[in-house]
Amino acid sequence: MSAAGPVRLVVAGAIIDLENRSLLLARRRYPAEVAGLWELPGGKVEVGETPERALRRELAEELGIDVEVGGRIGPEVALRADLVLIALTARVVSGTATPTEHSAVRWVDGAGLSAMASEGELVPADAVWVSDLIEELARR
Ligand code: 523
């Protein structure tokens, strides 16, 4: 892909349960480099789709949850020359997160997230957002 080629967006959901001050993480099955590591669930934005709509579609497909999408959180992360990752906050409106494509899901609080980051248990791109996520979890 040339430097001037189209850039595709990947959107990840910072799904926060404000009552329990916790964040939803999902464990990747593939590819090998990140298999077993935890991510903010999401996926690629399709042509003609907004990031918000893409996130709602991916989370319904992958986890069976309906979410309300909020604003951007953290910096964008360049995954490759032609792929950029962003995070949007979200909250579950209905459903219980049940993995279909991931091997597991878990809710973590700020301390839990921090510990997982220290242990290298997050996918590298998402680790960039840890301080922003901890701040968001502590917000009142
Ligand atoms: N990431 C990533 N962090 C993160 C997500 C949702 C995705 O680093 N929180 C990366 C992993 C892949 C790329 O973004 O390199 C695409 O994510 P993926 O595979 O979850 O998106 P899909 O399912 O839309 O893409 P395909 O598997 O290619 O269909």
Description:
There is one protein chain. With 140 residues, the protein is α+β, with helices and mostly antiparallel strands. Helix content is 25%, strand content 35%. The chain contains four helices and eight strands. The chain has helices spanning 51-63, 110-118, 124-127, 130-138, and strands spanning 8-17, 22-27, 38-39, 42-44, 66-72, 77-80, 83-94, 104-108. Strands 1, 2, 3, 4, 5, 6, 7 and 8 form an eight-stranded mixed sheet that branches. The longest helix has 13 residues, at 51-63. The radius of gyration is 14 Å and the shape is globular. The mean pLDDT is 96. The chain binds 2'-deoxy-5-methylcytidine 5'-(tetrahydrogen triphosphate) (523). 2'-deoxy-5-methylcytidine 5'-(tetrahydrogen triphosphate) (523) binds at residues 10, 12, 39-40, 42-44, 79, 85, 123, 125-126.
Small-molecule binders here are: 2'-deoxy-5-methylcytidine 5'-(tetrahydrogen triphosphate)
Mean pLDDT: 96
Number of helices: 4
What is the H/E string?
A: EEEEHEEEEHHH
Beta-strand content bin: 35-45%
Helical amount: 25-40%
Based on CA inertia axes, which overall geometry fits?
Answer: globular
Radius of gyration: 14 Å
Number of strands: 8
The biggest beta sheet, please? 8 strands, mixed
Structural class, by secondary structure, is alpha+beta
Report the uncertain regions.
Answer: none
Q: Alpha-carbon distance between the termini? A: 44 Å
